[in-house]
Amino acid sequence: MSTDYDVVVIGAGPAGYVAAIRCAQLGLSVACVDDWLDAAGHPAPGGTCLNAGCIPSKALLESSELYARMQGEVAAHGLHIEAISLDVPGMMTRKDRIVRDLGSGIAALFRSNGVEWLHGRGQLLPNRQVHITAPDETGQQVTGRHVILATGSAPIELACAPLQGERIVDSTGALNWSTVPARLGVIGAGVVGLELGSVWRRLGAAVTLLEAQDSFLSMADRQIATAALKLFRAQGLDVRTSARVLSTRDDDGTIRVSYQDAEGVHELAVDRLIVAVGRRPCSEGLATAEAGLLLGEGGFVHVDEHCATNLPGVFAIGDLVRGPMLAHKGSEEGIVVAERIAGQRSAVNYEAIPSVIYTHPEIAWVGRTEAELRQAGVDYRSGQFPFAASGRARAMEAAEGMVKVLSDARSDRILGVHILGAQASELIAQAVLAMEFGASSEDMARTVFAHPTLSEALHEATLAVSGRAIHLAVPRRH
Ligand code: FAD
Predict the structure, then answer these.
(1) N or C: which end of the chain has fewer CB within 10 A?
(2) What's the mean pLDDT in 89-110?
(3) How confident is the model at residue 266, as a pLDDT?
(4) In the annotation, is 266 catalytic?
């Protein structure tokens, strides 16, 4: 086996494995080093996203949503299910199979593209040398003409709520329970807290989310976040904002969570607790001091707009660097870095990266919020359309939520699109495409959308920007 490569990638998550494959497609020799082991101790590519993030959470969200719909919504369709039973271990087996199959798929892609997959922990040494410590503690050294760092992130732990077996867990633990807790507490009502809270709520747990911030989903558009909070509370998700956790105590099997809000100190008694307060970059020990890799605030590897670090020929991508901690953002950076190494002039458009929260209904957005536009002093116009007025949404029993389009008041260029509703994760792609092409709201308003579809709500919202949505009641003119 060679020890010299054109590119050595450290990390095989969605940032690293995609970078490795793109490098190979461009004719570069590539090794991808990764230390993830599955429950059986076998190397498993795909990083957090595949093994403990995007995919397993979506598998459980899908199963739990199906269960919830069978219990409730089907009656509205005139269907009656006499008995339905819950098999949580069966749900977990399905989820594990999906993860395993997709992992085998990545391994096959590595083989077919000629990417050398090296198992172990990589550490950057001076002159783009990488030391790899294998799971059996043996060591080896490889060198890259270029090195791409893609070691991702790990859950932030809270000193006031230390992890404890199956009772106090991080997001990874909450994806692997085989029984439903009667009372579940979640510290953090962000994307991960809401998604995992939703899974267990739908399966029957009484769920309380404690969020330290005063505002709910501060990164989302205010109107959308407020509407979503109302819907989530109606589903039984007890979201408490301005609630700062002080301590946790195991009282004979009951976890007592002490937290403070504006009214004083309170206690929440739960059977299990998820700590979902964000993630930190995995940069500790990634490079030796002699290598001289520059880290920035919060331990993120310092990079320029093209993901170049302070070291010549060394790049960093994904959760390890600034920007949203999203799989598709990391993958896009991986592609762009590979292409730049191969001499192309690629760039990531950070203005058009979609965000999605896979709750019910889903929340998705791209571009700026109204608050951001106001703060930046941008003159904008807004068009909104409720799913309640969409024929397809009504037929689907999915009339909750809305679409909101924001465009520049002078140029009409679309600056942001915000969706709360069924399949928002899919609908947002149309808005991303429009923004990528610099479309105006008029461009979308003049586009023909199939009827009846949820996408028509996006079309109507673009028509609403200029006050001409068809299926929206307006005050009568005299
Ligand atoms: P990672 O996926 O973290 O991969 C890094 C890899 O590097 C890992 O395999 C790690 O073991 C390995 N590694 C670390 N250090 C070393 C080392 N020194 N040597 C060798 N290997 C090393 N994002 C979305 O876009 N959509 C979602 O729906 C979504 N859902 C999520 C749900 C949950 C519950 C969680 C926790 C996260 C979710 N995310 C989602 C976030 C997403 O998982 C991350 O943004 C994404 O995985 C980051 O990709 P990455 O390649 O940068 O890092």
Answers:
(1) C
(2) 98
(3) 97
(4) no
Q: Which residue has the tokens 């490795």?
A: 20
Residue 478 has pLDDT above 80, yes or no: no
- Which tokens belong to 354? 């979609």
CB atoms within 10 A of CB 103: 21
- Distance in angstroms (rounded) separating the CA atoms of residues 423 and 107: 30
Q: Give the model's pLDDT for residue 476.
A: 74
Amino acid at 175: L
In the predicted structure, residue 251 carries a pLDDT above the cut 80: yes
**What's the pLDDT score for residue 474?**
77
pLDDT at 473: 86
Q: Please give the Cα distance from 388 to 396 (Å, whole number).
A: 11
392 touches ligand 1 (CB under 6 Å)? no
- Which atom, in ligand 1's list, is nearest to the CA of 329? 25
Tell me the per-residue pLDDT of 121-134, one tens digit each, with 9 for 90 and over: 999 999 999 999 99
Ligand 1 proximity of 151 Cβ (cutoff 6 Å) = yes
Q: Is the CB of 277 under 6 A from ligand 1?
A: no
Question: For residue 78, what pLDDT band results from cuts at 50, 70 and 90?
Answer: very high
Q: For residue 451, is pLDDT > 80?
A: yes
> What b-and-e string marks burial along 463-472, b requiring 16 or more CB atoms within 10 Å of the CB?
bbbeeebeeb
| pLDDT single digits (tens) 2-42 | 699 999 999 999 999 999 999 999 999 999 999 999 999 99
User: Any bridge partners for residue 440, and if so which?
Assistant: 413
Cite the DSSP H helix spans in 136-221. Answer: 171-174, 191-202
Smallest CA-to-CA distance from 396 within 426, 418, 355 is with 426
Residue with CA closest to ligand 1 atom 46: 327
Could you tell me if 264 and 137 are in contact, meaning their C-beta atoms sit under 8 angstroms apart?
no
CA distance 395 to 376: 40
Residue 135 CA to ligand 1 center (angstroms) comes to: 20
For residue 86, pLDDT over 80 is answered with: yes
CA of 139 from ligand 1 middle (Å) equals: 24
Higher pLDDT, 317 or 1: 317
> Quick check: helix, strand or coil at residue 108?
helix
> What's the 172 CA to ligand 1 centre distance in angstroms?
11
CA of 303 to the centre of ligand 1 (A): 18
Would you state the pLDDT for residue 1? Answer: 61
Dist CA 478 CA 198 (whole Å): 48
